[in-house]
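Example 3.
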Amino acid sequence: KAGVTQTPRYLIKTRGQQVTLSCSPISGHRSVSWYQQTPGQGLQFLFEYFSETQRNKGNFPGRFSGRQFSNSRSEMNVSTLELGDSALYLCASSLEGTGRRYEQYFGPGTRLTVT
Amino acid sequence: AQSVTQLGSHVSVSEGALVLLRCNYSSSVPPYLFWYVQYPNQGLQLLLKYTSAATLVKGINGFEAEFKKSETSFHLTKPSAHMSDAAEYFCAVRTAGGAQKLVFGQGTRLTINP
């Protein structure tokens, strides 16, 4: 079974621009979560989507948003990019169901550099 | 609120030696605990998880962890280190029930000396 895929893998943007990152979960997984990883702040939860609805949100400004489609694929968007948004953005998917609900499987990430 | 503290941002051991990576958690309700490994330029790979069943959990690649409620700890061990174990390791916690939200420790970089 294919793992979580994220596109693009690398991205370079300029301050003030916006960016959209894509995540395809493992087949059959309906929950998708996003995390930001930086050397200073470590791994921080951005938000989670389940059945096209945002179920939980971390402490990030409104410039960070996301959505989930009916096929469980998810996108996250960052508007008005700042230098501090440079990070590895990780997507994780999870299979809803007893016993397995709490396992999250991560994709390889998208490395975003803001200049 | 849950939190995780990993003691030691960098651990170095010799090949064949015991690996011990420390993790202490804070949670007001029964936690679910996880260890993930991250190799350079890759995402996170699940090593093992504790979800209130057996307190000694065995994972992949010979790793195991023991949940100790009295010590609020979930340390990761491997009896004999291999060069391929060199990576960054993250301990994470989440509450039983509720949405998917992992709270991660700051990570421990494991170096294996030949």
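Residues 29 and 95 of chain A are 4 Å apart (CA to CA). The mean pLDDT of chain A is 92.
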